[in-house]
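Repro:
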Amino acid sequence: LPPQFAGLYSLDVMWDWPCEYRKVDGLPSSYCTFGAPWDSAARKAMLWGDSHAEHLAPMIEAGLAGEDVSFLVYGNCPAALGGTVNRQRADMPTYAAGCSGKRADGLAYLGAHPEIALVVLAGAWSRVATTVSASGVPQGQDGTGLMRRGIDEFLTEATSPGRRILIVADTPMYDRDPIPCVIARDASLLRR
């Protein structure tokens, strides 16, 4: 492969973004924090969601240069999940229960920390809408309405005076992996 495509060749290279994982009092695990040091930052924010939220972190961090703001990345589950709306994943049998626990812990943390003035919600919303379910509702039926209900429930519980909540639209997604197309077009590899 030509040298300019080396980054496309490895997910490890593409996902290489150093982040300090630390134990945050009041949360059961270690979490990625970036920007100013979490314990001493003048302003605190939370980035909540799945990998579509996590991919925003390096861009947010670049925009924070010189600001006394710290972000905590609260990942793995979009904010729409974990209340009365969930998603079953065959590849992760404990996903729904994990999201429920994570949501409860995160909302309790937000309730105990009104100094967190901004919560940014991001996720693979289009995928969430096609895979969510609620008690008595088959998976995939009225997914957009269920996802909206899950977000509304989250907003009701996470809102506090002075706190802003920002919902970031989904990142446009390809219906297939674009990397082979880029390599085929710009490299000298022959393809069948």
